[in-house]
Design goal:
Elements (H helix, E strand, L loop, with lengths): L1 E5 L14 H12 L6 E3 L4 E8 L2 E8 L6 H8 L8 E11 L3 E5 L7 H10 L5 E10 L9 E2 L6 H5 L5 H24 L1 H8 L1
Parallel strand pairs: 1-4, 1-5, 5-7
Antiparallel strand pairs: 2-3, 3-4, 6-7, 7-8
Helix pairs in contact: 1-5, 2-3, 5-6
Length: about 200
């Protein structure tokens, strides 16, 4: 069994924000693999569903705790000793929109949802699927360089809604995430890292 967690904030006002890209791609993943819609389970403080990806059993969680307290739900959701089979899908401001990376055992990278999970689980040893939401410069002298918002503007950026153009890019990203998660559950995160990073 693998445990898939998408990070996001609950509420319609957050539905298409950059910070909720983990939920957006997880929605698509569940739909592709005919995993039934997630149902609220108060015992784990989130919406849960079960199904299979490439014949491998998965349990899916959308925490309803708000981003900064995601670890409270994840701690209830993942059984003791199964942390290495936890796969967290979330936004990464330090990757350009359209880029996806797989990692394992890293720090929180300044992401409060990941910080909460590490704190509550007491370990960094879980798989992350980091989905870029960063903006890239279009100016010729900085073409392709990532433009990170200043600290005081960061919350407004990550809680801002995707533009129509950006949502088209997110749709393409869901293809990559689908492939990556399928490889993770079939062959493990190391194979996925070697293939997609």
């Amino acid at each position: 069994m693998y445990y898939l967690v998408g990070l996001g904030n609950t509420g319609e006002e957050y539905a298409t924000t950059r910070h909720n890209v983990g939920w957006l791609v997880l929605d698509n993943l569940c739909e592709r693999h005919h995993i039934s819609p997630a149902v609220l389970q108060n015992s784990v403080s989130g919406r849960v569903s079960v199904g299979k990806i490439a014949g491998v059993s998965v349990s899916v969680l959308y925490p309803e705790t708000m981003m900064n307290n995601s670890g409270a739900a994840v701690r209830k959701f993942v059984p003791d000793g199964e942390g290495k089979r936890l796969v967290v899908l979330y936004d990464d401001i330090d990757l350009p929109l359209g880029v996806v990376r797989v990692s394992f055992g890293r720090g929180n990278g300044g992401h409060n949802g990941i910080k909460s999970i590490i704190d509550k689980l007491g370990t960094r040893d879980f798989v992350r699927v980091r989905i870029g939401i960063g903006k890239v410069s279009i100016w010729p002298w900085q073409k392709g360089q990532l433009i990170r918002p200043q600290a005081d503007k960061l919350p407004k950026f990550v809680l801002g809604k995707f533009s129509k153009h950006e949502l088209q890019e997110v749709e393409k990203v869901t293809e990559s995430v689908n492939e990556i998660v399928t490889v993770i559950v079939q062959y493990g995160h190391i194979t996925a890292m070697n293939r997609y990073n």
